[in-house]
Structures are given as structure tokens and as C-alpha cells.
Amino acid sequence: MSIVVRKPRVPAVGDAERVFADDVLGGLGADPKRLSPKYFYDHAGSELFQRITALPEYYLTRTEAGILEANAGAIAKLIPRDAAMVEFGAGSSAKTRILLRAAPQVSAYVPVDISGEFLAAETARLQLEMPDLRVLPVEADFTKPFVLPAALGARPRVGFFPGSTIGNFEPHEANTLLRHAATMLGPGALFIVGVDLVKDPDVLTAAYNDAAGVTAAFNLNLLKRINHELGGELDPATFRHRAFYNQEQRRIEMHLVSLARQKVRVCGKSFDFRRGETIHTENSYKYTIDLFRSHAAGAGWGNAATFVDAQNYFSVHALRAKGVVKDARSIAAPGV
């Protein structure tokens, strides 16, 4: 695919593109260089991620879906009548459908996602499938405070955060996100969170280095997005995807490795790369069940139920808010 390069412009203050530009310039100017994984998900990135979820090496999606299918009835019993389900980082909403079908008492669904085009398409599909469900999409960066639709009224709220996206946050950032969710959803609210578990490093490494190269394309698409939206001059052919398991940190790390010494430009600014220098694009922390419960408890959540698969690859936690958590700060962007 050819890269569309256009001249950089100065976006309006407060514009999402300005925030993107500031984050990219700051990340490329840092030592070591880094970019936030939340910027993977433009339309092309979202479609590539959907392909990743179907790969044989990528156990996470099918394992979590299997847990939800097997335990949907038990989870549904925890959801109150006339509830509103708020999904943080909705994506395709495929796993949400499992819960919505099992819990007809949910009367409103609020998918929150940073990719507006992808969100609109998924919302339209879901509304056709479930015409009696009120779908109220919110285009927002869920890593920062956002406003829920006023139309939710006084409905009890249920949060849904699948896919082990919680693992993309540094532990202290994950704690802040959990506190923010407790404040937003309210005392006594239910929060259903998917969490990937520590396991054989070979299984973990293979999941992020698929033979078909889809994860590599997903990682490299971030450079294409910078070129397209910010007028960047980064040649994806001069970078390669690298993912490995950092056993000490209990996390998968994804990087883009420069294949040569080079100079790149973004928004009129130049950045030098040494051969072998990387842009750290994502972390994916893996938890034990006890460790995640401890994190959740420190952020104001009690354990209502925990569900795992037969191989102990993945876990789904049903958390219950202990009360209103005060002083929730903005959630730091996930990444390094």
C-alpha cells in the first residue's frame, strides 16, 4: 500500500489532531523513543486488530469469549434491572453481544471508543441486531475522563473492559483507571474486566509474533497513520516489528526497530535514529489472579466473582465498587 504524505498543517488548539501531534512529537523526542498504543486504532488499525483476534496464535480473544459464553448466565445475575452497560474501548463489541444476549435487563449500552468511524459502523450493526436496546455511542479517549450521555438518567451502571486492555497500562496507570471507573460508574456498580494471566513465555511470545505478519502490520500502521494525519516522513520499510516477553516485568513489549541510521521528519521537526534504535509502542502486562485482585482492591473494588478457562490462560473479573472513590485524576496514556 502506498503512503499518502501531505504537508503538515497546524491543527486548531484543542483539536484531537493537535493532541496526537503533541504526543507523537514528545514521544519521538524522548529517550528512549515511545508512542502510545492508543494511537494504533485509526480505522485501518482497528480493522487489522480484528484480524489479529482471529489468528491461531492469538489465544486472548477466543479464550475470553469462551469464558464469557460459559459464564454469561452467572454474570447476568449480577447485573441489576434496567442497567446501562458502559464499555471502555468498545472496538467490535463482539464480546459485549454475549453479555447483552444473556442480560436482557440491560436497557442501554454506551460504547466508548477513540475511533469514531469504526465506532459508528459497529453501533449501526448492533442497533440492527438489537433494536430494543438503546445504543448511545461516545467517541472519546477513555484513558481520560469523559462525559456519559445524560440520557442514561439514574440507571444503574455496569462497566465492561474486556480484551485485557488493562494490561496496556503501567500498574500505577491501571490503578488510576480503576479509580476513575469507580467514580464514573458509582457506588455498588459492577465492573467486568478481562485480564490476561502469566503463562508459558513461548505462548505469550507467539501471540504477538504471528506467522502471517498481521501484528507486524498493525504495529507498522502507526507510522502510516503519522504520515497520513501529520504529514510525517517515516518509511515503514525502514522499520521492523519486534515483540518479546520481559519476564522480570511480566509484560510483552512491542517495538518498532529502525533498520538503518536515518533522519525522519514529523510536523516540520527532525528526529535522528541510530540503527537498531526502537520506538516502544506497547506493553501488555500479565497478571496472576491474586495480584489483579490486590490492584483492584487498592482502587476501591471488591471481588464479586472470578472466571477462568480450563488452561488458566485468561481471567474475567466481576468487581463491585465499594463506594465513591474521590480525587480520581486524569488517566495517564498507556505505554512505556
Identify the notable features of this structure and list them briefly.
336 residues, globular, 14 strands, eight-stranded mixed sheet, four-stranded mixed sheet, alpha/beta, disordered N terminus
Task: Give a structural overview.
The protein is an alpha/beta fold and 336 residues long. Helix content is 34%, strand content 24%. It has 9 helices and 14 strands. It has helices at residues 16-28, 43-52, 59-76, 94-102, 116-129, 171-185, 201-207, 214-230, 289-298; strands spanning 33-34, 83-88, 106-113, 134-135, 138-139, 157-161, 190-196, 239-246, 251-258, 262-266, 269-273, 278-285, 301-308, 314-321. Strands 2, 3, 4, 5, 6, 7, 13 and 14 form an 8-stranded mixed sheet that branches. It has a 4-stranded mixed sheet with strand order 1-12-9-8. It has a two-stranded antiparallel ribbon with strand order 10-11. α6 links the parallel β6 and β7. α2 (43-52) runs antiparallel to α8 (214-230). The radius of gyration is 20 Å and the shape is globular. It starts with 15 loop residues before the first helix and ends in a 15-residue tail after the last strand. Residues 1-14 and 324-336 have low confidence and may be disordered.
